Amino acid sequence: MNKRTTTALLTMLVLAASAGVQAKEKKINIKENSSGLPAALSDSIAQTSVSMGVKEPISISRSGDSAVVSGSTGTVCRIKLSSGDNPNIMGISCK
How does the average pLDDT of the chain come out, rounded? Predict the structure, then answer.
């Protein structure tokens, strides 16, 4: 290989590696979590809510069969959860 090909391959490798690092999920700033939900589900709810417009820091609480997520703006998400020991997200509504 000549020097130009080696440089091009090295550049592509560095760009591919940096894209993988940027693709990692950002840790959401959760100010308060009084929901009592498992940590993995709370993180998933936090990620979903932020992507729907809730601004950090966020608060997660539980209201019946739903989790309620609010943040530093007026946007609030209500996440419908399945019943049982391991609840799953069934739906989301944000206003």
Answer: 84
